[in-house]
Here is the input.
Amino acid sequence: MTATTPNSATEVTDPTTDETSTPADGSEQSDTATDPEGAQEPEAPAEETQPTPEEPVEVVEGSNNLIEGAEAQSETAGALLRYLHEAAFEIGNFRFSLLDGLLIIGVILLVVTVAWFVTRLSRTAIRKISRFDGSQKVLAEKLSTIAIWGIAFFIGMDMLGIDLTALAFAGGAFGLAIGFGLQKTFGNLISGIILLLDKSIKPGDVISVTDQAGNEAVGQIRKIGIRAISVITRDQTEHLIPNENLMINQVVNWSYSSKDVRVKAPVGVSYDSDLELVTKLLYQAVDDTPRVLKVPKPRVNVMEFGDNSVNFDVRFWIEDPEGGLANIRSDVYMRIWKLFKENDVEIPFPQRDLHLRSSKQLDQLVELISAGKA
Here is the structure.
């Protein structure tokens, strides 16, 4: 008996064709690390970056420079200044120390003193310029004053080392203040400059001034300021008139083109008077009065035949209106009065005649009055 052994298939695996080897198509294997159970390792969380707080801004940078200079000279002085610098408070991102305040006060005193002294020197120099008239000198003084103080302001800011951006928050409020509170002030400033450029009103001119009650007075301009002009009347009352009012309202300038002013003095005489004699006496009264000019010549005119008098108008000229108009008119009237008295010229005045009609009641009243007196 022959034993038959069944054929058993033997699997031969080629090492070069192992299923665990890299595929032939070149695809990459995942590099993710896996544990024996097939779970992925968790990634570490990213750390959050905390924002660094902004350092406060020094409002006055000059304090640091002052401290550095003091420390280079003396440790004690530097320590004292640094102590003052540490005593500070903050507003938002801005830091303001006690040393800043002291430094600001010192710089302000220095700058104001120097600016005031330079302003005085500039005014003295401008007044010595002979080719400038009064209004041009005043205008030059105002412009130089504005320029000097403007330069002084920026020099002070530079000395303090103030960062102008630190003051930017006040720009809006300052703009509103100019728009509302300082509107009139800037208007008067510009009006004063225009008046000086136009030369329509200048120091020394004689103008008519009306007070709040409506009374008109003649005064002389003493000075033109930044806000208002100063006018002094004959009774030594000083009126301060805003420059803007002179630009808007009508102003009577008695000495704008010439100081010669004509004054009128109306006079009335009786109908029984000799008009030729009256005319001669009026001319004589004007000629005898001081301050009256001979040229242009005075003029006497018959104006009208009134209800009670013949009305004359005496017109004469003076060259010094700042000396007053009412007083020269009074002097002329006093001289006319004396001449009329000497020549028996009557100055009429209103008279009223009462005519009483007789009646029983009136007769009884007269009798009662007479009996009472008896």
